[in-house]
Write a sequence for this structure.
């Protein structure tokens, strides 16, 4: 997916298409100290939703400085499994 941005467009027009200025967006989701406060099941759901958004709308990544649900003690192998189960491929831990 690719978003188009037209800096000359007014707020009422569709700013996703442009003939003068095109930009491809790269989205970075950052979760820092948030997951621990969410109800059970929500952290995994949030990871899955953000992954699906990127699959549908473009490219991006996840920067996570938080706990992962279903990953006691920050176990590396369980972390990989949890991220992949929710649509993410780990690049760096």
């Amino acid at each position: 997916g690719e978003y188009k941005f037209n800096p000359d467009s007014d707020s009422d027009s569709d700013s996703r298409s442009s003939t003068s200025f095109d930009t491809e967006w790269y989205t970075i989701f950052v979760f820092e100290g948030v997951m621990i406060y969410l109800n059970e099941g929500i952290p995994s759901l949030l990871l899955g939703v953000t992954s699906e958004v990127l699959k549908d709308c473009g490219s991006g990544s996840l920067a996570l400085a938080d706990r992962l649900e279903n990953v006691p003690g920050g176990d590396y192998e369980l972390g990989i499994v949890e991220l992949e189960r929710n649509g993410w491929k780990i690049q760096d831990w």
Summary: Residues 71 and 81 are 9 Å apart (CA to CA). Confidence is low (pLDDT under 50) at residues 1-21. The chain has two helices and two strands. The radius of gyration is 17 Å.
